[in-house]
Design brief:
The relative contact order is 0.15. The chain is built from eleven helices and seven strands. The chain has 329 residues and is an alpha/beta fold. Helix 7 packs across helix 10 and helix 10 runs antiparallel to helix 11.
Length: 329
């Protein structure tokens, strides 16, 4: 008798860079329509304050810039608010999703703002060398398949002394910690819905294809970072003055628990009193994070990481170069 042989189940290969780009494009195209309402994105005074504060944290101080390039601009949360606040004078917004850029253009027209939008891949930017003062993004690096290539492109298009700043990137350890309130909220969701008097959410999609695209939300995130990893990408690309900090600990736990509860309920049935409680509680705990915890605890345990770096002032300019054509995606 032959001994039993255990054959482990086949482990699927990791997705290719092309597959990652395709999934991100398809998901964000269908998510664009209600993206602002889902994430509470606004373009008034409150939105401007949140965005300028986050950018200032990443950079280690407030500053203003001439020509700025946003990577993964989405519906324009950062660029449009920074333009209104006067932090940047000219904004070029890129994204892999045409649907997101369409929403951005509609918001810019409504606000009376001039922006340039380009659908392209962050790893092959269709812009000349030395053409921007700032390259920035919010919650975008964790979607990019080849970060070393992307950081080399950020370095290429920046002038000597130019800066990069990225906010809202998931921390490897912070993401694990955030899983605890998320799981707890899912267990509590039926009781919470009864308490606030709301029904269970039933998603309505116009087609089976739209339902499939929305289901990709949990596939589009391909990285979570340690501070050292983000520092390494910037250093290898030739940046100096690399800085990584953490943001949102207890506020993040509170926010994710509430978002998880809300995701199980019919959105229009959630009472205004709940939204006020969730907002005020989040802001109170965020003040604790800002004033105490972010100064005392290591960045790695926070839910979000913020990073910035600078092109050395004595770096030679790359010189004029014709812009590459926008990548066909």
């Amino acid at each position: 008798m032959y001994p039993a042989v255990y054959i482990s189940p086949a482990v699927p290969p990791p997705p290719s860079a092309e597959e990652i780009r395709d999934v991100n494009s398809r998901y964000h195209d269908v998510a664009a329509r209600d993206y602002d309402s889902k994430w509470g994105i606004t373009f008034g005074t409150a939105g401007q304050e949140v965005v300028t504060t986050k950018l200032g944290k990443a950079l280690g101080g407030t500053d203003s810039f001439g020509r700025a390039l946003e990577i993964g601009a989405g519906t324009g949360y950062f660029s449009l608010n920074l333009l209104q606040a006067g932090v940047v004078r000219e904004a070029v917004c890129t994204d892999i999703s045409r649907g997101m850029l369409d929403e951005l253009e509609r918001s810019a027209a409504r606000l009376g703002l001039e922006v340039t939008t380009v659908r392209c891949d962050a790893q092959e930017l269709p812009f000349p060398d030395d053409s921007f003062d700032l390259v920035f993004g919010h919650a975008v690096l964790h979607h990019l398949p080849d970060l070393d290539a992307a950081f080399r492109e950020f370095r290429r298009v920046l002038r000597p002394g130019g800066r990069i700043a990225f906010c809202g990137e998931p921390s490897e350890y912070g993401d694990r910690l955030a899983g605890v309130p998320k799981r707890a909220a899912l267990r509590m969701a039926p009781a919470w819905r009864r308490l606030v008097g709301v029904g269970r959410r039933v998603d309505q999609f116009s087609s089976e294809d739209e339902a499939v695209q929305h289901g990709l939300e949990h596939v589009v995130d391909v990285h979570a970072f340690t501070p050292g990893q983000l520092q390494g990408f910037a250093a290898r690309a030739g940046f100096d003055h690399v800085r990584v900090t953490g943001e949102e600990l207890v506020a993040g736990w509170f926010g994710w628990a509430n978002r998880t509860l809300e995701s199980t309920a019919e959105p229009r049935q959630i009472p205004r009193a709940w939204h006020l409680y969730a907002y005020r509680g989040y802001m109170l705990l965020k003040a604790l994070d800002d004033r105490v915890l972010e100064r005392a605890l290591p960045p790695a345990i926070f839910y979000n990481l913020l990073m910035s770096a600078r092109v050395p002032l004595d770096a030679p300019a790359a010189g004029p170069r014709a812009a590459l054509p926008a990548v066909a995606l």
